[in-house]
Amino acid sequence: VNEVKKMYYQNAYKKRYISQDLIPNLERLKYETDESIKRSIFDEDEYYRYEKYLRQVYCTKKHNPDMDERDLHVRKIFYYFLFIMSNCGCRSKELLTLKLSDITMSHPRWSKDMDDSCVEIYIRREVSKTGKSRKLVAKVKKKLLNLLQVYKDLGIDHQSNDYLFINPSNKNINAKRNAYGRGAFYKRMKETLISGGLKEELDRKEKKISLYTMRHQYVVWRLMIGKVNIQNLAANIGSSVGKIESNYAHIKPIDYSEELVANQGLAVTRTKPINKKKALDKLFKILEDTDTDVET
User: Fold this and answer.
1) Which of 40, 105, 218, 222 is the most exposed place for a label (fewest CB within 10 A)?
2) What's the gap between Cα 15 and its chain centre?
3) Burial of 117 (0-12, 13-18, 19+ CB in 10 A)
4) Over the stretch 180-226, which tens digit does the pLDDT of each residue have?
């Protein structure tokens, strides 16, 4: 449509062959937005292998003996970014613009277990996609403390107004402490999917993995485990119930699997019943092995 209008304007109107009122008013074709790319996520095995590769190979001196310690620490920052995101459901921009002062490390109303493992994160209005501020609770305290220690090892001690994900590329620690951009982390993600041996497998399955995948990973697993109130989930991730129902209607909670297929196909062939406990145990083991939040 734009090209046709441009042709009329440059070749007809500007050369005074026609008047402006003779330029046709063309309407754009309406189409449904394909959000399948946004919803591509790792399955349990892919997630486990990717997390294990980053933690045990990509970030370790053992497998990178010639790499400078500083570069290994930068890799760890990337690792913590991905797996904090998959455990809190933030958008990548929200997490990258998060400041230390936006994080409450303890809460007087929480139990000891909650206080030991969870934090409250404040998403400021100016960085929220919806234009509304919100508070979310995430079981990422251990990861956050480890991340802050990585920065201390780099000679960077966070001040309250600092971005959580400071880009340490400037070795002058007194210089302006800018946050990472999405491009830097997305580039690393693409590189590590290749070096970790997952890229070809994901391509065969037509999965388009991006930073946003980690947010969707969080939502899908909260729904699969089936113990989360959808209104609470919507509030935590800064979305609406309608949007979640629209984007994730294909997700079937494991807890409901047997109920959803009960008495189906009895007149045809009886199939092996779904082992709900085995499916849950497998998922829980993977989440625990990767230090991923399993409680909702």
Assistant:
1) 105
2) 52
3) middle
4) 999 999 999 999 999 999 999 999 999 999 999 999 999 888 888 76
Residue 137's DSSP bridge partners are 120
Query: What secondary structure does DSSP assign to 96-155, as a single string?
Result: HT-BGGGEE---TTS-HHHHHH-EEEEE-GGG-TTS--EEEEES-HHHHHHHHHHHHHTT
Residues paired with 121 in a beta bridge:
103, 136
| Token couple for 271 | 């199939």
Output the six-digit token pair for 149. Answer: 């220690």
Closest CA to 253 of 289, 285, 229: 229
Distance CA(21)–CA(15), nearest Å, equals 15
Contact status, residue 123 vs residue 94, Cβ threshold 8 Å = yes
Q: Which two tokens stand for residue 35?
A: 């959000």
Handedness of CA 82, 250, 237, 34 (dihedral sign): positive
CA-wise closest residue to 279 among 253, 259, 260: 253
